[in-house]
Each structure stands twice: as C-alpha cells, then as structure tokens.
C-alpha cells in the first residue's frame, strides 16, 4: 500500500492512499445500527475539529470513514440498510445521517481533497526540484570520479610505457656494450698476434745468431 507521507508519489496517488486509509468501516450484524450512527456523528465532530486545526489529512480520513470504504465504491448509507436491525433504527437518526452525508461529509471531503491535492502538488514540485539538484550533484560527482579514474589510468599507462622504454634502452645499451667488447677483443687479438713475415724474420735472426 502506498504511503501518503511519501512526497515522491504523485499527488493523486497520495490522495488515493488517504482515501483508502479512510475506507476501513465494516458493517457487523452484532453491532446495533444506532452505534454506527453515533460513531458517525463522533467522526463528523472530530473531522470538524481537525479541519479547524488545519490537520486536513486526519479530517479527510475521518470524512471518508464516515462516508465509508471510499468515494468510488459504497457510501455508509448504502451499507447500513443491509444490517438486520436497520429498519428498527430510529428514523430521525437515519435522516440525520443522510443529511450529514449530503450537506457535510461529501462536500467537506471534496473540499479537503482539493486542498490536499494543492498541498501535495506543492510538496511534489519541491521534491522534484530537490531530486533534480541531488541527481545533478550525483552526476557531477560521478563525472569527477570518472575523470579521476581516467587520469589515474593515463598516468599508469604512461608509467608502464616509460618502464618498457627504460627496459628497452637498457637492453640496447647492453647489446652495444657487448658489441664494443667484441670489437675491443678483436682489435687486441689482431695487434697481439705476429704476422707470418715477422715470424720468418724472427727465425732468420735466431739462425744467424746461432
């Protein structure tokens, strides 16, 4: 069941919820009709007090209880004739109930319904404005968060590429040093090894000195 205090509901739905809340009167054959009439009079009295105090929600509920079930189904006066003792009830009380329904309950319920609709429309409009502001703030926060996440990913990707570049540069440097070392060893070996002509001259020199 919808909650009539829920400002996020459409005004008409909140009024329906209040109407339904007021639709709780049931006819019981064990209860004398006169008690229903007297209860109805007390409801009207309390509804008038609530109306004067500006508590139109409670007043609206009580008027609907007096009318019974709801403005869209059966009125109290249609349910009481089904009671087994209805015909024996005091006729002036029944006439007074009919008069109160016609002159007080129905008109007052309709007046309060319009007043409630106006108030609920204002509350709903305020809710819509507040909800939009909250949604906009949330959207901005989410946008900022997405931007922060994107920046973190960008920085992380840049750092990853930098590390890869550094590793590649280190590998290139290692290869270059290995090539330089090979070249150095080749040069040393080339100049450290005597040529064949030098070997012949060395042999000839040794033979002459012998």
From TrEMBL:
Keywords from UniProt, A to Z, are: Coiled coil
Protein name as annotated? STAM binding protein b
Which top-level group of life is the source organism from? Answer: Eukaryota
Q: Would you name any one GO CC term?
A: endosome
Name a single GO biological process: protein K63-linked deubiquitination
Q: Which InterPro entries match?
A: USP8_dimer
What is any Pfam family matched here? Answer: USP8_dimer
- From the UniProt record, list the coiled-coil ranges: 141-181
Q: Which residues cross the membrane?
A: none
List the GO molecular function terms.
K63-linked deubiquitinase activity
Where is the USP8 dimerisation domain positioned along the sequence?
12-123
């Amino acid at each position: 069941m919808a909650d009539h205090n829920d400002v996020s509901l459409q005004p008409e739905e909140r009024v329906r919820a209040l109407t339904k809340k007021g639709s709780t009167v049931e006819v019981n054959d064990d209860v004398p009709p006169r008690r229903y009439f007297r209860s109805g009079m007390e409801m009207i009295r309390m509804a008038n007090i609530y109306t004067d105090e500006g508590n139109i929600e409670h007043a609206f509920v009580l008027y609907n209880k007096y009318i019974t079930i709801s403005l869209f189904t059966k009125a109290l006066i249609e349910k009481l004739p089904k009671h087994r003792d209805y015909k024996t009830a005091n006729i002036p009380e029944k006439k007074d109930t009919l008069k109160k329904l016609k002159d007080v309950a129905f008109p007052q319920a309709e007046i309060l319904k319009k007043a409630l609709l106006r108030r609920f429309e204002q509350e709903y409009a305020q809710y819509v404005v507040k909800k939009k502001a909250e949604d906009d703030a949330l959207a901005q926060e989410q946008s900022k968060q997405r931007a922060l996440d994107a920046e973190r990913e960008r920085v992380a990707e840049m750092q990853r590429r930098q590390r890869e570049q550094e590793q590649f540069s280190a590998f290139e440097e290692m290869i270059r040093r290995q090539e330089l070392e090979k070249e150095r060893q080749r040069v040393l070996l080339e100049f450290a090894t005597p040529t064949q002509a030098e070997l012949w001259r060395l042999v000839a020199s040794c033979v002459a000195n012998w």
